[in-house]
Design a protein that fits this description.
It contains no helices and 16 strands. With about 220 residues, it is mostly beta strands. The chain has 2 domains: about 100 residues, GOLD domain (Jelly Rolls, Sandwich), CATH 2.60.120; about 100 residues, GOLD domain (Jelly Rolls), CATH 2.60.120.
Length: about 220
């Protein structure tokens, strides 16, 4: 292209993990600036590490939390169509928690800055821990004049001792997405919907991870607007 969008800041950078230590990339709170996170990439140099939590915190609140599998080098990439962000003046922190001995690798992010948020965006994401052998559902209630848009879903399991678990999206109580997550695989999994998945104004939207038998404990995150 001949010119870059004015809102783009430094596109990406790398940071090497320290063995047995958390690693974080922080964009400090800045008056008049909204930090926007477009993607995260993570890889480990060795397989000798425990499960490591990957989190995103905006304005001091966790908005994304997913576990990277133990004994796996990756690489992993999580894409956030439209960006993940909060309000002007909020700090942005991307962190990979300590994964034990052998926890060395690389964390990269792509971020940018803007001065105002689109009027249609509500809180961009939230997390829900799944309960053992129980369904986990995140529901956005039907609201007059509101059209819920789903941009992505991320899921991870804490253990590899679960049965097949169905991941579904229902709009106005009608299933519009239904996929099975395999048994005995921790993930993480991410499903992205370019342009968003949505129905009509005033319809509810529900994301559900069906019961997956004993051992189905983990995390589910969505990005909606």
């Amino acid at each position: 292209m001949k010119s870059a969008p004015e809102t783009i800041a430094k596109a990406s950078f790398d940071v090497a993990f320290d063995t047995n230590a958390d690693v974080s990339i922080t964009k400090a709170a800045t008056v008049g600036t909204i930090w926007v996170l477009d993607w995260i990439s993570v890889s480990f140099n060795k397989t000798a590490h425990a499960a490591a939590a990957l989190t995103v915190t905006i304005g001091g609140t966790d908005v994304f939390d997913i576990d990277l599998a133990a004994a796996s080098t990756g690489p992993y990439q999580f894409l956030f169509p439209g960006g993940m962000y909060g309000s002007t003046g909020d700090a942005l922190v991307v962190k990979v928690a300590d994964g034990g001995s052998g926890h060395t690798g690389t964390l990269s992010i792509r971020y940018r800055e803007m001065s105002s948020a689109p009027e249609t965006l509500t809180k961009p994401t939230f997390d829900k821990a799944t309960g053992t052998a129980a369904a986990a559902t995140v529901t956005l209630a039907a609201t007059v004049g509101t059209l819920w848009v789903l941009d992505w879903i991320a899921v991870s399991f804490d253990a590899d001792t679960h049965a097949v678990a169905a991941l579904t999206v229902a709009i106005d109580s009608t299933d519009v997405f239904d996929i099975d997550l395999p048994d005995d695989v921790t993930g993480p999994f991410q499903f992205r919907f370019p342009g968003g998945m949505y129905g009509s104004s005033g319809e509810s939207l529900a994301v559900s991870l069906a019961a997956g038998s004993s051992g189905k404990i983990g995390k589910i995150s969505i990005r909606y607007r």
